Each structure stands twice: as structure tokens, then as C-alpha cells.
Structure to design on (130 residues):
């Protein structure tokens, strides 16, 4: 899906298009290689790694265990109950996000949110002193 997200850049026109058109040609092979590496190369390297039991006195392990238990507490006390409410009221949630999208669209269309694709440069010259 990430590769598909970059494909519209191929269809930009003008000066912006000449810059944007190059991005998918770089991103696509990099993402494909990353996929191949994560599925084929890394597992082959990691099968030789022996998993050792974490030491209790290692300060990094203590921080990791604290973060993991804090995250699990957040999941149990906040995320799971919120998810239950959202799933049980899914149409209301969809309506809420559609309304938020329309508000943002109106904010943008009303001119309150400015957008400049390529900002103009104040001076076309650069000076450097060595």
C-alpha cells in the first residue's frame, strides 16, 4: 500500500512534476528490497541468534519491563474500554469523522489554511564566505 501511495506522483505536471516524478522511482525499489529483506534475509540471520534470559539487574531491562507493564496497563484501562465503545457505536464514530473531515475541508476551502506547494525564494543567489 505504501508503494501505491507514491504512484500519483508520477502524474504531476510542470516544474513540480519534474521533481515529484523521480520519487516513486526511488521509493518503490527501496520498499520492495525492504520487503524481501524482512521476509527472507533477516530471518535467515536471526535463526542463529540464541535468546538469553534477561538479567534482572540490567538497567535497560528494568526500563523495558516498566515500559511494557505501563503500556499493558494503558491498553487494559484505556484502550480496550474505548475500543469497545467505539465498536458498539461505529456508525456514530464514522459520522463524527466524516463531520471532522468536512470541517477541515471547509477550513481549507475558506482560505483560513494557506497552502504553497513550492514557496518562492526571496533571492535567487546564495553567498558563502570561506
Amino acid at each position: 500500500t505504501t508503494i501505491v501511495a507514491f504512484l500519483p506522483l508520477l502524474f504531476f505536471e510542470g516544474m513540480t512534476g519534474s521533481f515529484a516524478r523521480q520519487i516513486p522511482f526511488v521509493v518503490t525499489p527501496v520498499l520492495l528490497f525492504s520487503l524481501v529483506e524482512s521476509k527472507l534475509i533477516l530471518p535467515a540471520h536471526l535463526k542463529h541468534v540464541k535468546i538469553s534470559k534477561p538479567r534482572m539487574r540490567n538497567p535497560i531491562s528494568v526500563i523495558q519491563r516498566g515500559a511494557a507493564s505501563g503500556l499493558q496497563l494503558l491498553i487494559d484501562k484505556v484502550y480496550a474500554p474505548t475500543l469497545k465503545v467505539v465498536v458498539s457505536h461505529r456508525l456514530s464514530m464514522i459520522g463524527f469523522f466524516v463531520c471532522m473531515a468536512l470541517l477541515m475541508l471547509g477550513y481549507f476551502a475558506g482560505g483560513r489554511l494557506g497552502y504553497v506547494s513550492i514557496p518562492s525564494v526571496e533571492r535567487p543567489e546564495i553567498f558563502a564566505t570561506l
Observations:
- The chain has two domains: 1-51, 53-113.
- Residues 1-51 form one domain.
